[in-house]
């Protein structure tokens, strides 16, 4: 009788331990994805403002009018440009998009500040 209780107890302990390891793995992956994105701003630059209302996993992707293949709602982008200025950022899933809403902002970022802003995203799959 004691061996049956011990076997059941071992199964429960193994289940709880594997659940804990799985949960810690999920937390580590989420931290890597979300915290890693914020730390990529080059030194000397401050992040552009961002509108409120970003959802936990999808960010601001709800502005796509319900269809993934559609363009973001132009009226919402214009509204944010009026509220936040010519340069702002939105979160689209795990990616940060910087929106430039005027020709002057484009010239400033790509022409005058090109040495600070011209870089490629790190491909996490290729980097390991």
UniProtKB/TrEMBL annotation:
Which InterPro entries does this one have? Cyt_P450 (IPR001128), Cyt_P450_sf (IPR036396), Cytochrome_P450_fung (IPR050364)
Q: Which residues cross the membrane?
A: 14-34
One GO term in the molecular function aspect is: oxidoreductase activity, acting on paired donors, with incorporation or reduction of molecular oxygen
Source domain of life: Eukaryota
Q: What's in the keyword line of the UniProt record?
A: Iron, Membrane, Metal-binding, Oxidoreductase, Transmembrane, Transmembrane helix
Q: Which SUPFAM superfamilies match?
A: Cytochrome P450
Question: Which family does this protein fall into?
Answer: Belongs to the cytochrome P450 family.
Protein name, entry field: Cytochrome P450
């Amino acid at each position: 009788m004691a061996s049956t209780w011990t076997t059941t107890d071992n199964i429960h302990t193994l289940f709880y331990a594997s659940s804990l390891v799985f949960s810690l793995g999920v937390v580590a992956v989420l931290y890597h994805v979300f915290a890693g994105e914020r730390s990529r701003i080059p030194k000397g630059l401050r992040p552009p403002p961002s509108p409120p209302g970003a959802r936990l996993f999808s960010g601001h992707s709800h502005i796509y009018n319900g269809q993934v293949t559609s363009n973001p709602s132009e009226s919402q982008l214009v509204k944010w440009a009026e509220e936040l200025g010519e340069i702002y950022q939105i979160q689209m899933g795990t990616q940060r998009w910087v929106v430039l809403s005027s020709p002057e902002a484009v010239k400033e970022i790509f022409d005058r500040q090109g040495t600070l802003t011209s870089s490629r995203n790190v491909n996490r799959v290729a980097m390991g």
